Amino acid sequence: MDSANWSDQPAVHYLAPAVTRSAKIVVAGAFGVGKTTFVGSVSEVTPLRMEEPITQASVGVDDLRGTPHKTTTTVAMDFGRIHLLDDRLVLYLFGTPGQTRFRPLWEGLTEGALGALVLADARDLEGSHEVLSLLEEQQTPYAVAINVFPDAPRYPLHEVRQALALDPDTPLAECDARDRRSCVYALITLIEHLTARHAPAPLVEPRP
Amino acid sequence: MTGPRHDPDMIRPYVRTGGQNRPSRDVRLETVLIAASGPTERLGPDARRVMRLFAGGRGGLAVADIAAALELPPSTVRILVSSLMDSGHLTSPAPVQEGRPGLDLLEEVLRGLRELV
Ligand SMILES: Nc1nc2c(ncn2[C@@H]2O[C@H](COP(=O)(O)OP(=O)(O)O)[C@@H](O)[C@H]2O)c(=O)[nH]1
Ligand SMILES: [Mg+2]
User: Fold this and answer.
1) What are the pLDDT digits (tens) for A85-135?
2) So which residues are the signal peptide here (chain B) (predicted)?
């Protein structure tokens, strides 16, 4: 609030004038899996932060002003962006923990998203179930990338697939969230999957 | 995880948006805005802060960029921006497409990402 920034002109990175389209991908996963690192590796600006205060009321009130028995939690989301195709297109990446208790926020985030890339840590595959079930519930298509930490066990991918209860056609890759190329390849894997879902279905006679 | 899967008591914060609590049009975090025209003297303080970001034609910003720059909750910025589009102060060069993104957008993003590696 009390800012030393007297100029009232924050350092803002404007989009290229050629931009005519935008798209968004959600980078989801449990705490500490490397979401912020991933977003920062791909983004051409230092990841920015948004904060949404979420009020949790203890009783079913519909007016928040001055009503007691409430706690406010702030949910932070990092995001980054990258201009593509000679600046005609800008792609936003939103990093989010995707917890069930922040469901209203999560819906605004995935609405209109191309899909989600779920980062997982092989040391804690259990920690990915919450975000996977949220995405499935919302019918947001996703791919999974194991962010490889040096001290993490390297399980065969088919075992990881089983542990995460992934559909056979859900892409599962490995990545290093600190490495830009590796992150871009993980995103390509996701988009290829999303594109394939749009492939025309084989012609079948409509059922009567 | 034994807690309830759905918490019905989750409600959005009251926001300073002139009494509105949801956007009047489909404005998303990635919706790109550019300045259009219109006098700004009758706007509320937060709307004026938004418009000040666009002064001088320095370029476009998405809703998320505005939220980060002004340190406002994204839900608030979505409402402010939709009002500013209704009043003709802001416009989007990239109108929101309803529903899930189409194949053409996916293919463009794919092409763009492949150019990077
Ligand atoms: N060794 C290694 N460390 C990583 C990697 N990705 C993230 N980290 C570290 O893990 C920690 C958590 O990463 P962060 O991106 O903040 O996770 P977030 O909570 O999902 O946003 C940070 O200290 C990172 O520097 C990775 O691929 N390899
Ligand atoms: Mg983070």
Assistant:
1) 999 999 999 998 877 777 777 878 899 999 999 999 999 999 999 999 999
2) none
Question: In whole angstroms, what is the distance from residue A13 CA to residue B97 CA?
Answer: 25
What pLDDT is attached to residue B77?
Answer: 96
Q: Render pLDDT for A6-31 as a digit per residue (tens, 0 to 9).
A: 454 458 999 999 999 999 999 999 99
CA-to-CA dists, residue A94 to A91, A113, B25, angstroms: 10, 10, 22
**Which amino acid is present at A37?**
T
Fold exhibited by the domain B13-116:
Arc Repressor Mutant, subunit A (1.10.10)
Question: Is the CB of A32 within 6 Å of ligand 1?
Answer: yes
Q: Which atom of ligand 1 is found nearest the CA of A31?
A: 19
Q: What is the CATH number of domain A15-49+77-198?
A: 3.40.50.300
**Confidence check: pLDDT of A61 > 50:** no
- Judge if the beta carbon of residue A35 lies within 6 A of ligand 1: yes
For residues A34 and A67, the answer to whether their CB atoms sit within 8 Å is no
Measured between CB atoms, which of B1, B28, B115 is closest to A130?
B1
Which chain B residues are closer than 8 Å to A194 by Cβ?
106
What totals of helices (H) and strands (E) does chain B contain, helices first? Answer: 4, 4
CA–CA gap between residue A158 and residue A172 (Å, rounded): 9
ipTM of the modeled complex: 0.85
Q: Could you tell me the pTM of the whole model?
A: 0.86
